[in-house]
Amino acid sequence: MARIFLTGASGYIGGDFLHLLNKLHPEYQVKALVRGAAKIEAVKKAFDSNQVQVVEGDLDDSSLISRQTSGADIVINLAASGHLQSVEAIHKALSARSRDPSSPYWIQISGGSVVAAAEVTDKTRISGTGSDVTWDDLRDIDALKTFIKKYPYRKVDNYMLDVATTTPHINTAVVIPPMIYGPGRGPVNQRSVQLPNLARETLKRRRAFQVGPGESRWSSIHVRDLSQIIVRLVEKAVEGRKEENLWGPRGLYFTGVGELSLSEISTRIASAAASANLLSDNSVEELDADQFESLLPHGNVLYGTNVRYGASRARRHLDWEPKEENLEETISATVQAEAKNLGLLHTSESPNHL
Question: What pLDDT is recorded for position 191?
Fold first, then answer.
């Protein structure tokens, strides 16, 4: 029986993943790290305690994380992509099992902005400009590792590269999602960040906007498709599959499906909002980097850079294909959801009647 230690069960990615994992594999025993009484209660209510056991704590409790890691066959760290202390605690516990013939598995979440590191650190670059650079996690695997090592501020990503080479008995996989969209199915946070926040600020200021020329492009994936990839990795781990194309130095997984430019996204938000009489017109205002950042913290990274890749490794080695609707098909629903949250659109009202 698989023993799994999961962080992030109350989060957007982790919650949706746990929903799917528990639905497909109720036989797996999951210990889920959760912080806060309300979140703990929500997770307990959502899952059978015989299948999902809540462990109260947070990522800063290194001793707790090490203890839980020591008793797990598979560790899935989905709570944060940049929390080095928790990653070190997991590694310490798994390293102590070097003579364990079962060889533990570790799935670690990262973030798409890793491939934008050159743009992020280029102080002369104009936010929102485009790029022809695209990445492939099969073709470019060696170039990707070399690229990451050039940017030590990506501490967790570099740490995971070191783990894969220095402690090969730990089967690691790093999942690198781009812009994630769609409603989650987890017990607590079901809302994404990039698309909803852009829609929300558009509605608040009553005009759509972009940074610079709006040429920057991000790949995207529906949260349910992302969960499928992580579940497939867990299934491979449970089967004891240790192929080099799944784990270790080659176990880096891009998860892009489609892509749009920021200008295209902002234009679609404007059109959806104007159609619902939430904006007076569908024009898009061009802002400079400082103006944009004042509306959306970290916005120049999350919207003004280029993160362009597919999901070749998952398609080839996990037999995965996306099934959910694409990003543009969710924009209208996202605008309406944010309008309701702002009190601009009531559930009983149709946009055509506003």
Answer: 97
Would you say residue 202 lies in a domain? no
Strand duo 29-34 + 52-56: pairing: parallel
Q: Please choose, from the candidates 17, 288, 243, the residue with its C-alpha nearest in 3D space to the C-alpha of residue 126.
A: 288
Quick one: tokens of 148?
């990451």
Handedness of CA 10, 16, 21, 22 (dihedral sign): positive
Q: Establish if 140 belongs to a structural domain.
A: yes
Q: What is the pTM of this model?
A: 0.95
Q: What is the DSSP letter of 248?
A: G
Strand blocks (E) in the chain: 3-7, 29-34, 52-56, 74-77, 105-109, 171-176, 179-181, 208-211, 217-222, 252-254, 258-261, 284-287
Residue type, 256: G
The per-residue pLDDT of the chain, averaged, comes to 95
Per the domain annotation, does 351 fall within a domain? no
Domain span including residue 95 = 3-182+221-259+308-324
Q: Is 47 exposed, middle or buried (0-12, 13-18, 19+ CB in 10 A)?
A: buried
Residue 48: CATH number of its domain: 3.40.50.720
Cβ-contact 134, 308 below 8 angstroms: yes
pLDDT single digits (tens) 320-340: 999 999 999 999 999 999 999
Q: Is residue 75 part of a domain?
A: yes
Tell me, what amino acid is at 190?
A: Q
Helices within 112-215 (DSSP H only): 117-121, 141-149, 155-166, 194-205
How many domains is the chain built from? 1
CA 41 to chain centre: 24
Low-confidence ranges of the chain (pLDDT < 50): 350-354
Q: CB-based contacts of 195: which residues, under 8 Å, 6+ apart?
A: 179, 181, 265, 327, 330, 331, 334
